[in-house]
Amino acid sequence: MSYPTVSAPYGFKPINRFDGMPYAGATNQYPVTSGQAVYNGQVLKFVNGGTVSPLAMTGNVSIYAVGVCVGVQYTNSSGQTVQAQYAPASGVTNVIAYVVNDPAAEFKVAVTDSAGAIVPVAGTILNTNVEGVTGTGDAATGNINSSIDGSTADDTATLLFRVTALVPETTTTAGLYTEVVVKFNGTWHQQLSTLGTATA
Description:
The structure is a single chain. The protein is an all-beta fold. It contains no helices and twelve strands. The strands form two sheets. Strands 2, 3, 4, 5, 6 and 7 form a six-stranded antiparallel sheet that branches. Strands 8-10-9-11-12 form a five-stranded mixed β-barrel.
């Protein structure tokens, strides 16, 4: 049998909800912090003042996630309103991110090492907590190559993501998984936090 392959990470893709309900495409709109580029599939955080910025995901997190960006809107240098996959850090104004901020949302994501290279893992990664890999944005596609670091899988409560399902369609011939499904872990999502905006 021929299996599709995953050659590179592609960010976080919303697919459904942890409670079994389908993901209906709902988003909230948040202004983006001035001078910050944002990409499709990127995890964002709140900053003081109510804007959002990219969330660095290396190591145990100390700041809450607001959700995942699935597109943007901005005003270009000609005064036109543009809807796009990403917004550059300069040359545009009034940048708004469309964010999947439902704390029950689940996302399909590639499994990599800490440097972003695809490293398939065994099914024992299911029901563990994992660290995210921040990745870099691609202006040509508008996407970011974020992923999760499979080598960090354990019970550490301060890791940002929880692996909730495996993706069998892209297993290797050895039966290892190159993609999994995750949700934000515990109260590391802003909507589940009992505290206000925490800044890095």
